[in-house]
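Q: what does this look like with adenosine-5'-triphosphate bound?
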Amino acid sequence: MKSQDIRKAYLQFFESKGHLIVPSAPIVLKDDPTLMFNNSGMAQFKEYFLGNGIPKSKRIADTQKCLRVSGKHNDLEDVGFDTYHHTMFEMLGNWSFGDYFKKEALDWAWEFLTEVLKLDKDRLYVSVFEGNPSENVPFDQEAFDIWKKYVPEDRIILGNKKDNFWEMGDQGPCGPCSEIHIDLRSNEERAKKSGRELVNEDHPQVVEIWNNVFMEFNRKADGSLEKLPAQHVDTGMGFERLCMAMQGVQSNYDTDVFTPLIREVETITNTKYGSNEKQDVAIRVIVDHVRAVAFAIADGQLPSNNGAGYVIRRILRRAIRYGFTFLDTKQPFIYKLVEILSNQMGEFFPEIQLQRNLVRNVIKEEEASFLRTLDQGLILLDNVINTTKGTEVSGRKAFELYDTFGFPIDLTALILREKGYTLNEKEFDVELQKQKDRSRAASKVKTGDWEVLYDDDVEEFVGYDTTTTNVKITRYRKV
Ligand code: ATP
Ligand code: MG
Ligand code: MG
Ligand code: MG
């Protein structure tokens, strides 16, 4: 089954169960101070759970463009290295706002996977919340009993609060969740070791596909729980993972969501995916990141030097750097993938088709400018090496390259390693700390009611890796 048809099948199934199908919300959030990007299907419905506003329908389903590169959900460091976490992915979701509850949600999840899609029942594992007496949260007997109708008890896993209890914050709606995992290993591998032992073990072929959250409690300020007056369902299923299961492959990158992009990268860079591990990582990073960047731009978030724009710039630069280092790409090329993305996704997400030229041009421009930085940096780094006595390169000089020219420090370290040099990292860290102190001091400027903030929390919130330039992230706090 093609990915297009899998998406359609999901939406049609929930439409047949009385759900209103709505479009994805934009990937970039403009009016939520707690979140830069949509990172789950429920973000656009949050207010309904909090009791503010009334949804158009008590049953809604959609596929939501999600981005997990900051805050609580930050998968960026895994992307490229594993085969099932992306920066941008689609989350298929169905919701009940005070309407159906556990029985329908789990019955339909099972019906969709095993009867509509005909996935092998023996490969599915489910989890339910084990309960937490010290916090007065009970074991989810109801979900357990529903699953017992479909799966043998040894494939029902009891999960703890971390994996199987969902909370929006310290207070507010919360409740247990029930996940569905699938074991895609060969029969031979499955005979050797039960999938049960591999659920939650980060095994690339035993992955979580669907999470069903049941909002049934309200956590009060004193920490105690009370039953909500109306109960809600919030589900999220990873579309690319579902495609992997349906297409009989063992990596999201081997599904038709990614293969056309990979073929194009192979052609442009004259490489073969699957023949060299480092190049494979680079190719996965590029085809993943181009989606995130393209959809962010199509939704109105241009790369820039602060806030969400800066996150997008850094994602794109990560892709450029992987290409530059491992695929030897010295000319812009990532922008060429936009055409393919637009052909593939445009039918369902018209924004990518409508904004195709803008997206292409912005990416091409960003690539050209960052490649110039990398080129200059290489020359400067050569000079540093030539004036180095011994094999240890000064951390202060590496910092200068990083701070003044925007040359990524991890690239410096990599090149030095390849040439048989080491980097004095302690010295680099000292310089980095000094720079942070300087910008913090400089930031104690107040503009009217607002104080400009540069702090470590902000960097943690936004960021992921060391590909920073000398640009700082700016946020404002009301004073
Ligand atoms: P995981 O444990 O695999 O990181 P999760 O528990 O963080 O997933 P949820 O927040 O429950 O994920 O999101 C619902 C579904 O979205 C997951 O069951 C999974 O199929 C999918 N998903 C989550 N994160 C990603 C990602 N980074 N890339 C692709 N799919 C994802
Ligand atoms: Mg996760
Ligand atoms: Mg999980
Ligand atoms: Mg989950």
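The chain has two domains: 3-252, 258-478. Confidence is low (pLDDT under 50) at residues 445-479.
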